[in-house]
Amino acid sequence: MEDIRALQIDIPRGRRVPLKDVADVYVAPTPNEIAREQSSRRIDVTCNTKGRDLGAVAKDIQAKLREVSFGAGYHPEILGEYAERQKSQTRLYSLMLLSLLGIFLILYADFRSYRIATMILLSLPSALSGCILTAWISGGVLSFGSLVGFVTVLGIAARNAIMLISHYRHLETEENEKFGIHMIIRGALERITPILMTALAASLALLPIVISGNKPGQEIEYPMAIVILGGLTTSTVLNLFFLPLIYWRFGKAREAVMAEPELS
């Protein structure tokens, strides 16, 4: 080290001085690798989670980083698995909107009525209220698994709604059942078994995941199971009680349209 400090260097006017006169020479820890991304230097700080889900830990890290003042040109970014999950969630939001559009087109293709298709589609968000409630009770973190649960419940609720409305149409057109409260009650009672069996079978399949708890290795399955269980509860109530009332209220216009040819 002393030899380095005594190293002679050239200065203006042809003179030579030892290095120690113009610089501090000492041993200091430095990165053994300088990483760059888009022409900017970066330093990676890695960590693993234990006993908590990745999303909650990442939110805590972001909260702490907001309290840290960085110099000009420096900024923090959370990358790795968390960043990939965020990208997946963004894609899932886009696919969810496309699925809603697809559901509406399928409903219109089946019922040939914008009114009935819109009525069913607008009733679906009510089925998701149980998903939102259980997600909030379990910690309020909307993870990738939770979003998958939302899409699953949306599909189940749409299927049950299509089955119920199709049965009402069958009673009117094939069995000549007069539109009214008697038909509404009869249709709901005849559809109660398949709707309850769907919800019960799915709930029993997810129950072991819920009972085992939110442990490492189940960061996706556990929130998905919790959200689906809550959504199945509200969607079943919606399909058996509220959707029949909605159809009774807005199906009267359809009865008048069907009666016009008979009057003429």
UniProtKB/TrEMBL annotation:
Keywords noted in UniProt: Membrane, Transmembrane, Transmembrane helix
Pfam family, one: ACR_tran
A GO CC term assigned to this protein in UniProt: plasma membrane
SUPFAM superfamilies xref list: Multidrug efflux transporter AcrB transmembrane domain (SSF82866)
Coiled coil: none
Transmembrane segments: 92-109, 143-162, 192-211, 223-248
GO MF annotation terms: xenobiotic transmembrane transporter activity
Designated name of the protein: AcrB/AcrD/AcrF family protein
Species for this entry: Hufsiella ginkgonis
